[in-house]
Amino acid sequence: MARTRVYRHGVLEAENFPAAELSDHLQDPAAVVWLDFVKPTEADLATISEELGLHRLAVEDAVHEHQRPKVDRYDSHAFLTAYAVRLDTATGVLSDSELAAFLTDRALVTVRKDEHFDIEAVVQRWDASADLAKGGTGYLVHGLLDYIVDTHFDAVQAMDDQIESLEDGVFADHVDHTDMQRRSLRLRKSLVALRRVVLPMREVVNSLMRRDHHLVDETLMPYFQDVYDHVLRASEWTESLRDLVTTIRETQLSLQANRLNLIMKKVTSWAAIIAVPTAITGFYGQNVPYPGFERPWGFWLSTAVIVALSGALYTMFKRRDWL
């Protein structure tokens, strides 16, 4: 069952009336109607499609998922597609909810592709700015876009916090590299998904603000401009965060390479030190006479040479910061 509202002269007059009464309300030139559907079929939209003169291609796009954010213009209406997003801060996974909308001079029809799109939040924005209701369909579209863009902004801000936490972890004394790599990958995938729905919104909002569309009047223009400003900020923020995640990953790899080099220097240095007594004891292990052969002082001589050379190597490596 569709959710409905009707405004007359900028005042909410009725809501939750049957969709079949749409034509009755539209007979009044002062009426502006909103209808909301959840996962409808083309048959469900057939009645309003005929009443509002909706284009067949727009109706097909409204019932099929995974459309790109856009605004299509037809003779009698405009067709809008956009996405609200949510970020799971526990996992860093981004989820989205697709929405399609038909925009006419005196009607807004929203089509939600799933029930996760919070239409109540949109209704609350309309009620909070009831003084703008005289703007007609533009007033309804503003509340809808304002909510959608705010979800983008909230998601970007949450990602910024997670990336900042990731930055702190890169320089921690004890780093779980596997966890860091997993978190970096999830955030990068979420940023790519967010970028796909945020960047096209610049064109969407800018297109709706065009004066030749006659959707936004002088009163609503500053409010749409504010939404457009939020779209630009979210877009630029998304781009900078994507670069930042890449930089963090490169920094992490550089630090790992530096740590590996340090470890290799230490291992090589100790191997060189151990090689000295190995060589000396191996030399003294020959079955041939040598200085101190079968004499007690020969043992002490070899021990002194081992200690002296090993100590010299240790001191040299220590000065070069290899140990």
From TrEMBL:
Keyword Transmembrane attached: yes
Q: Mind telling me which SUPFAM superfamilies this protein's record contains?
A: CorA soluble domain-like (SSF143865), Magnesium transport protein CorA, transmembrane region (SSF144083)
In what way does this protein cross or attach to the membrane? Answer: Multi-pass membrane protein
Any one annotated GO CC term? plasma membrane
The alphabetized UniProt keywords are: Cell membrane, Ion transport, Magnesium, Membrane, Transmembrane, Transmembrane helix, Transport
| Record's keyword annotation contains Lipoprotein | no
Gene Ontology molecular functions? cobalt ion binding; cobalt ion transmembrane transporter activity; magnesium ion binding; magnesium ion transmembrane transporter activity
What InterPro entries does this protein's entry cite?
Answer: CorA_cytoplasmic_dom, CorA_TM1_TM2, Mg/Co-transport_prot_CorA, MgTranspt_CorA/ZnTranspt_ZntB
Membrane-crossing segments per the record: 267-285, 297-317
Q: Report the domain of life of the source organism.
A: Bacteria
Q: Where in the cell is it found?
A: Cell membrane; Membrane
| Main localization, broad class | membrane
Taking the record's annotation, the residue ranges forming a coiled coil are none
Q: Name one Pfam family in it.
A: CorA
Q: Sorted alphabetically, which PANTHER family does this protein's record hold?
A: CORA FAMILY METAL ION TRANSPORTER (EUROFUNG)
Q: Which family does it belong to?
A: Belongs to the CorA metal ion transporter (MIT) (TC 1.A.35) family.
General function of this protein: Mediates influx of magnesium ions.
Its recorded name reads Magnesium transport protein CorA
Originating species: Amycolatopsis methanolica 239
Query: What are the top taxonomic ranks of the organism?
Result: Bacteria, Bacillati, Actinomycetota, Actinomycetes, Pseudonocardiales
Q: Which gene encodes it?
A: corA
